[in-house]
């Protein structure tokens, strides 16, 4: 570790990354959860960062966390450093895969079993047998971050996506509500969102994009009804486990009926629940990388198309 002329050690990129995340949350517990670390470890690292640069960056009370004037001044520089380092690692990962002839594909929940996913991966294997394909499971918290950091090249995910992510819609399907088997609504002939107004929703992780969390919670509801939230779930298995306990409900793609049958769960259609899509997604800055271009073009080639040259079961955007 280097030091400046005053003898202080230079801050690490890791510490700067923690500072940037904390500046976005202004809450130690939420920031720690997003960073998958304890509050005490985060607080210790922030204090170490302040000691290294010789400035107080945050003002802390029992109730609030705010940036000091020094913190406000240094935040753009800290963000620039972390973004530059992310770019370096991302470019290195992608370049290494190009040299190795390897592509890493991320998937969420049952997407590997969807016909559209299988068609693309099978086409990739048959048309490019020398290309090594590595599959990686993602969760609600890291699904879009994995694209931004270069952990995966492309991913089959469920939009909406945050800024910086580009996508190609592959299929549209209804969403269903997941209910405990003993919920009175299970036997109701027709369910609408108003029927679910008093039910608590499973909580999605803070690390997932807000636009994504709001979509899957139907938040806000059409009539403005406030939503209560229950336990946290980071993947579909945890959603179903929490629903089976009888304390919350969840909204999921209708294909869960096929891929996630559960004795303690009932899936029911909701008449006024908007549909969802599955999409091929990638980080916008990597749009023209050879492997990503290859997969994008292959998706267009192998999937059924409608009269306008896009997948017949959903819109496409690149």
TrEMBL record:
Cross-referenced InterPro entries: LysR_HTH_N (IPR000847), LysR_subst-bd (IPR005119), WH-like_DNA-bd_sf (IPR036388), WH_DNA-bd_sf (IPR036390)
Cross-referenced CDD domains: PBP2_LTTR_aromatics_like
Keyword DNA-binding assigned: yes
Domain HTH lysR-type, residue spans: 11-68
Keywords: DNA-binding, Transcription, Transcription regulation
The keyword DNA-binding is assigned to this record: yes
UniProt-listed SUPFAM superfamilies: Periplasmic binding protein-like II (SSF53850), Winged helix' DNA-binding domain (SSF46785)
Source species, domain of life: Bacteria
Family: Belongs to the LysR transcriptional regulatory family.
UniProt-recorded name of the protein: LysR substrate-binding domain-containing protein
Organism expressing this protein natively: Streptomyces catenulae
């Amino acid at each position: 570790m280097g030091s400046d002329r005053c003898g202080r050690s230079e801050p690490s990129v890791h510490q700067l990354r923690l500072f940037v995340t904390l500046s976005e949350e202004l809450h130690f517990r939420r920031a720690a959860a997003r960073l998958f670390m304890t509050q005490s470890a985060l607080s210790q690292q922030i204090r170490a960062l302040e000691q290294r640069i010789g400035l107080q960056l945050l003002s802390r009370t029992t109730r609030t966390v705010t940036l000091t004037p020094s913190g406000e001044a240094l935040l753009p520089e800290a963000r620039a450093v972390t973004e530059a380092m992310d770019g370096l690692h991302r470019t290195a990962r992608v370049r290494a895969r190009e040299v190795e002839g390897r592509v890493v594909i991320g998937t969420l929940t049952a997407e590997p079993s969807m016909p559209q996913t299988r068609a693309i991966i099978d086409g990739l294997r048959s048309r490019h047998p020398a290309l090594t394909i590595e599959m990686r499971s993602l969760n609600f918290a890291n699904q879009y971050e994995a694209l931004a950091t270069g952990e995966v090249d492309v991913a089959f995910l469920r939009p909406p996506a945050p800024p910086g992510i580009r996508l190609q819609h592959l299929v549209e399907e209804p969403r269903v509500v997941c209910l405990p088997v003993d919920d009175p609504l299970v036997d109701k002939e027709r369910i609408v969102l108003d029927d679910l107004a008093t039910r608590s929703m499973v909580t999605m992780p803070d690390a997932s994009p807000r636009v994504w969390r709001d979509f899957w919670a139907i938040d806000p509801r059409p009539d403005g009804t406030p939503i209560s939230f229950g336990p946290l779930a980071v993947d579909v298995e945890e959603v179903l486990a929490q629903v089976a306990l009888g304390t919350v409900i969840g909204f999921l793609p209708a294909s869960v009926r096929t891929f996630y049958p559960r004795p303690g769960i009932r899936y029911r259609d909701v008449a006024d629940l908007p549909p969802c899509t599955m999409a091929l997604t990638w980080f916008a800055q990597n749009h023209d990388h050879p492997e990503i271009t290859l997969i994008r073009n292959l998706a267009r080639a192998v999937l059924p198309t409608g009269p306008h040259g896009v997948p017949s079961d959903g819109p496409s955007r690149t």
